[in-house]
What does this fold into?
Amino acid sequence: MALHRIVAVLWAVLTLLAYGAADPAASCEGQTSCGACLTAHYRCAWCRSPAFGYSRCSQLAVMSRLCAADDIVSPSSEAEIVGDGEPSDQSPSQQPAQLAPRHLRVRLRPHEQYEFEVRFRQAEDYPLDLYYLMDLTYSQWDDKDKLETLGKDMAITLRSLTKNFRVGFGSFVDKPVMPYVSQVPQDLQNPCAIYGRECVAAYGFRNHLNLTNDVYRFTAQVSAARVSANVDDPEGGLDALVQAVSCSDIVGWNKSARKLLIYSSNGLFHLAGQGMLGGAAKRNDMRCHLDEKGFYTLSTVQDYPSAEELDGLLRSENMNVVFAVTKKYKDRYEKLTEIMKAKVEVEELLEDSSNILAVIKKQYEAITSRIELLDDADADVRVRYRSSCLGSDVQERNNCTGIKTGDQVSFMVKLEPLGCPAEKTRTIYLKDARSSEAVRVDLEVLCTCDCEAPAATRANSSECSGVGSLQCGACVCPNDRAGLRCECSQGVQSDTCRPAGSPDRRVCSGRGDCICGQCVCRSSDNPGHKVSGRFCQCDNFSCDRAPDGSICGGEDRGLCECDQCVCRPGWTGNDCACSNDTRLCAPVDSTSGQVCNGKGDCVCGRCQCYTTEQGRYAGLFCEDCPTCRGLCLTYQPCAQCLLRTGSVSASSCNSSCPYVLTLQDALGDPEKGTICRFEDDVDGCFYSFQYYSDAEGRAIIDVLRKKECFEVDVLAIVLGTVGSVLLVGLLTVLLWRLFTYLKDRREYARFERDLGDAQTSNLQTLNALYQTPVTTYVVPNRMMSTFRDAE
It folds into this structure.
């Protein structure tokens, strides 16, 4: 569809919503300049007529009745779709477009919201730029050979994804200085000598092939690339990544294509700060530094990039990066991507890189099956998204997944300026996170008044006592003058128009103007509303309202004076809705006329009964004491009759029941009325009811529908009795067994003690027949001497 211009007045196109819970009237109130008025709320309008006698800032609906139409300043919001069109596929005459509309111009008041639709359709054969960045250290020798053989298969794989693709090729080793690369002369020329092979000198990064649609050139460049070597395990891959991304003009990145960079390595990476070990102390400037042969020229000068710097570069270039690394280091790369916001993924690469085509296909399908809208709006503009995606419920979200070629989804995008920014006009881009397409929104925030321009300001106007400037109908006074017409000297301070010690520091409470040190209260838009008081702090419309909505119950009950109700005789309460006639709190047939029987207070024509230590008095006139049965016996027959027969007619009950009786599933709170409980002489169950009086003095009896019945379980009693007898018998046997056990232990202990005494005493004295088994022999001294001489 050709570009065309659609202009729509905002009242028909914009969705206008009030911000927060702010009241437009309250927001407009007290604004002293046209610009401040327009910023306060999008429904505020300013009257620039010098003769205007009301508040100059008010709601547009009110201002249109008070101010001439030509003098009302209220800029109208508008939306203009400059470039609409529809999402389209690739064709010989145009590039594919997945987003629509392409360009809008929007003019909004502060805190005003505009909602519009953004359509996305997955285009067929959308351009793809694929750059293969390969680690060519010695450990990747076999991987390079494998990649050479996959050239034809890569072409087939890419054509199955999109017919509009280009490929490029680059490689990296590391900074050619110690401690990353050996500086021994023979190792500098051939770092692979220690492995018995020949390879090229180490380098930081080299761009071998710019992006091209010739896959055979890609295969040839991979075949021609020579492997190198370094001495430490981490590589300079992030250095190379910066050059491959930032050298857009050299590599040939297409701004209208999906950009996919495959980073292939079986080693770790160096980060910022580690380059200083080799003397590369200068901070990486994240810019392109390639010579005519494609080598990175500042490899030995600039440090490695930090994760934050790399993340910012990838996001600014809208680059999709896939770290295809071996299983050994996959978790380290995943931790790196966790701290990055760019579109970066990690895939496991087999040791010989044979699954690289599967990785490319998987990541391409992941990129194309997802749409995510991002914006570059500043903090003073809120952008919100909602979508139903592919037929699901509408939700607050900026992305959809599971999209296939030809599928279309829509997003409702809502813009809202959060104030009056210094830069009134700005351009916001709503970008597809996976490609370079964007919707351009030119936003103008309407918070300035044409009448505030210097050319429209009348200096030394007679309307301003000849000393002030008339701007938008109001006087802007010099520093030494004050007042609505600059009629006062600056010696009269506005502090005299603020109540001393009050937390409200607004001049004249925000409802008046300080003229020469005194408050002049503004007229209200409602003729019946009046603002008064020394500081305009009082009014006749902010008092409490009765249940019917009338202020102070209406003029016949009270008047509103300075935010408080002054009740007329016979009425009381904050809203004058309560009658203080105590006759309503005494029975009509009462001879004493005592209010609430002396057991309560008459409040709003109803008795509020006292609560004592024994309980609370009850009844319409507090006639039931806490310890009395009250009228329970009076109402019992009717309550019992209702439970038995379901009605209280004269034919079903023996006594008349001129009361309002109802069956209830539950009784009310005891404070509602007296609760009575009786036993039914028929079935022995207990039933309960509650009685109280309504506003007309009628007796209301609520009878509990369900009785309390207690059934006797004979089987349980028999089983309990038998069990108790058995338990007592068992305990008796156990106690007897314990007694005999303790007795036997005492007797055995006595036996052991007597036996010990017998062993230690002279048994001969205990038994005359006892003979000791011990025999003593004495060797003669002569024989002992012979034994000693022999020794």
